[in-house]
Amino acid sequence: MRPRFLFIAVSFLIILLVVKIFISGLYLHVSGMKVPVANIAMAEESSGNQAVAKEADTKQTANKQTASADTTATAASLKKKEQELKEREAAVLKKEQELAPLQAEVDAKIEQLNELQVKLTAMAKEIAEKQQGLKDEKINHLVTLYSAMDASKAAKIMDKLNIDTVVKILGNMKGKSAGQILAAMSADKGAVISEKLGNLEE
């Protein structure tokens, strides 16, 4: 009975060993299948990360290129404006150089006109003085003439003259002669002339 028990026990152990080997083989087989799936998932995840990183790099590169393009455009615009300013400055300088002789000519003409104006002013003054001298000379001549005349005759003639002229003549005559002529005039005219002669003395 004992050998039979040993046989059963050994058989049971062999069966357990076979089952264990089978289970281990199955486990290894299943694990071998899982590893590639995990590797594929990891590879996909790594590929996704690489794609994201690559996209980020692409965006960063694009941003850098945009910033670089903007900087280049700004620099080009500033350079263009600077060139335009230089061209305008050169044009203004050229105009100034062209106008310099004309300005000198204008200044010379203005100087000539100023000198001419001074001369004309002097001539006008001289003419006015001469005219005044002639008037004074005429008045003096009339004074001499009316002084030599009879007072009543001189008064009759002066009645027909302009009052201002009569005032000038009588104003330059000696007091006695002027008084005699004034007395021979009408009372109204004599009063007006007397008033004007009084204003002259003031």
Structural class label: mainly alpha
Rounded to the nearest angstrom, the radius of gyration is 68 Å
| Number of discrete helical segments | 5
Helix content: over 70%
Strand content: under 5%
Q: What is the total domain count?
A: 2
Largest pleated sheet: none
Count of strand segments: 0
Shape: rod-shaped
Low-pLDDT runs of 5+ residues are 34-38
Q: Would you give an account of this structure?
A:
This protein is mainly alpha-helical and 202 residues long. The chain has two domains: 1-118; 119-201, Orthogonal Bundle (Annexin V, domain 1). Helix content is 94%, strand content 0%. Helix 1 crosses helix 3 (163-172), helix 2 packs across helix 4 and helix 3 (163-172) packs across helix 5. The termini are far apart. Residues 34-38 have low confidence and may be disordered.
Indicate the topology.
Layout: H1 2-148, H2 151-158, H3 163-172, H4 175-184, H5 187-201
Quick description:
The chain is mostly helical and 202 residues long. It has helices at residues 2-148, 151-158, 163-172, 175-184, 187-201. It has two domains: 1-118; 119-201, Annexin V, domain 1, CATH 1.10.220.
